[in-house]
Amino acid sequence: MAGENQQAESARDDGAGAEPQREAPAAEVKSEPFFILYHSGPEYVEELRRLSMWVERLLIPVYGEEVTSGAPWCPRWIEHTEAIAYFHGLWLAWQDKTGPKASLTGPSEWHRDHLGPTMTALRNPSGPFAGCKPGAHRAKERPPIEREGSERW
Question: What does the domain layout of the chain look like in residue ranges?
Fold first, then answer.
């Protein structure tokens, strides 16, 4: 337990668990939601770096379970866009539920409402890590998208 607390503190000290510093004056507030997949370039790279610190220093060391065929994991999770999206949502919820303005029941709500469902979806045998095995990475193939006429877009 002491090791888990040290890992949690380490993640917070590195800014990975801290409440995001994203508030801007009203005139500068962007209309888009802050979600990692809406960004590109340096903004995306920085958010992915911060997310990676949280996943690798807190989430997996504390909440990662043994890898089995029923609960796959990919150490190259950062190459799975779907996993990035799930982890980012989980991290944003973590910040909301454990930050300085969180209620005393926030951590419990995070575990119940966010951690369990997210990890179940990610580690599902047909989830983003399906086909990945220790030492063997395999990104899932996505279904093709057909568009009739480009004028719709």
Answer: 2-18+32-135
CA angle 100, 104, 109 (to 5 degrees): 100
Q: Tokens 């911060």 identify what position?
A: 50
Q: HEC profile for the chain? A: CHHHHHHHHHHHHCCCCCCCCCCCCHHHCCCCCCCHHHCCHHHHHHHHHHHHHHHHHHHHHHHCCCCECCECCCCCHHHCHHHHHHHHHHHHHHHHHHCCCCCCCHHHHHHHHHHHHHHHHHCCCCCCCCCCECCECCCCCCCCCCCCCHHHC
pLDDT digits (tens, 9 = 90+) for 73-99: 999 999 999 999 999 999 999 999 999
Kindly tell me if the per-residue pLDDT of 132 is higher than 70: yes
3 CB-near residues (< 8 Å, 6+ apart): 61
pLDDT digits (tens, 9 = 90+) for 9-29: 444 444 444 444 444 444 455
